[in-house]
Design goal:
Number of helices: 7
Mean pLDDT: 93
Low-confidence stretches: none
Order of helices and strands: HHHEHEHEHEHE
Oligomer: single chain
Largest sheet: 5 strands, parallel
Structural class: alpha/beta
Number of strands: 5
Amino acid sequence: MPISYNKARVVVSLQSIIANYRRIRTVAQRPMPVIKSDAYGHGLEAVGMALEAEGARECAVGTVGEGAKLRKAGFGADIVALLGALDREDAQLAASSGIIPTVLDIAGLERLAAQGTTERPVRVALKFDTGMARLGFTEHDVSALCERLRTLPSVRPVMAVSHLAVADDPTQSAFT
């Protein structure tokens, strides 16, 4: 998106993005590229398809709508929607597009459960708050969450995710 008062210009190099992904894979077996917000302005579809061709088995996007756009472009690997299914329409779109929404709370879990069946459960990523104090289940929620999941065969957790609050601060390694 052009900004008329800014003289800055961005040149996107898919080859550089691929090279960065290859480098990350040397230290992480299965990294999940985050390409939310139109791949941070670099082009959701182009970046997603390049990363999938390079072997990415999943990517994360911000919204279910972004995930549907990427799926429509032909992205066949798993897509995780970090903000989850915000309403019934998002839940329906996630279920019909095979997008894995994050679940931040019991209400979100219930919304998604209504879209799945025992034969075809909606796959979800359970989001846990590990210090950011913004989104996700806390350690105090775990028992109730597990109990509720046992009664919802129309939902299948496939991953747990978090956002580590101070992972980049070596002095906070005990907290992390």
